[in-house]
Design a protein that fits this description.
Blueprint lengths: L9 E3 L8 H18 L4 E10 L4 E11 L5 E10 L1 H20 L1 H4 L6 E11 L2 E10 L7 E8 L5 E8 L9 E12 L2 E13 L3 E13 L2 H9 L5
Antiparallel strand pairs: 1-5, 2-3, 2-11, 3-4, 5-6, 6-7, 7-8, 8-9, 9-10, 10-11
Helix pairs in contact: 1-4
């Protein structure tokens, strides 16, 4: 997670946004709905690397991830190399937690229904103008986190999330899980680029996991329809 610190960008808390924080959040919520619709029937390749430094074990799994029109996630394993303990007790648990989170998408979405938003300022992230918000869950629910959200100032799409889970998903056996999720914006849609996470597991010590996303393919018809509904298109 140390590498993630250099990606934070520069926030100017004293500088006011050209629009109210409430308006920014409303537009972000609308953009998030557009993103969710566009990601239905999407597919992408995952490169998952995980390690347990204390045990000197590591593994790497490459898979094809598909999201059905109903939002169901399936994985097709393309290749694995490394220790079987990592595959069975780290990567498989992570994939199971991802499937469970997708089935509870509405309850876990970073929206005002689930989180309190506090405006922290404007800044730059990867060359983009962004709004930075501190987010805190309204309830201590599995999969929710306390941390930060970066919103692109042009599209109002989320481009980065970071924080600590307030309650670990039952399928994710690590404790004190911290993460950073980064997104790219292409054709007005925010798509995942990388996720880094770490936590502590009984008997294992520190567990580290990085997921890189590539070859993302969207359903063109759904993407076109969703883009028409985006107020910034």
């Amino acid at each position: 997670m140390a590498a993630a610190a250099c990606l934070v960008g520069r926030s100017r808390a004293a500088e006011e946004a050209p629009e109210s924080p409430e308006t920014i959040v409303e537009r972000y919520e609308a953009a998030s709905r557009t993103q969710s619709e566009a990601m239905q029937s999407a597919s992408m390749e995952l490169d998952i690397q995980a390690s347990v430094p204390k045990l000197k074990k590591h593994g790497r799994l490459q898979a094809l991830r598909r999201i059905s029109a109903l939002g169901r996630i399936t994985y097709e394993v393309l290749h694995f190399e490394g220790d079987g303990v990592i595959k069975n007790h780290v990567i498989e648990h992570y994939l199971a937690a991802e499937r469970e989170a997708q089935s509870k998408q509405a309850a876990l979405a970073v929206t005002p229904a689930n989180y309190k938003f506090k405006f922290k300022g404007r800044g730059q992230l990867d060359g983009r103008e962004v709004y930075l918000f501190q987010v805190k869950p309204r309830h201590k629910r599995e999969g929710l986190f306390k941390g930060s959200l970066w919103i692109d100032a042009s599209t109002y799409m989320g481009v980065r999330e970071s924080g600590r889970l307030v309650k670990n998903p039952s399928r994710l056996w690590a404790r004190n899980v911290q993460f950073v999720r980064e997104y790219d914006i292409k054709d007005g849609i925010s798509t995942p680029r990388q996720m880094q996470s770490s936590g502590e597991a009984l008997g294992f010590g520190r567990v580290e996991l990085t997921v890189n996303y590539s070859k993302i393919s969207l359903d063109d018809q759904k993407h076109s329809t969703a883009s028409e509904g985006n107020p910034q298109q």
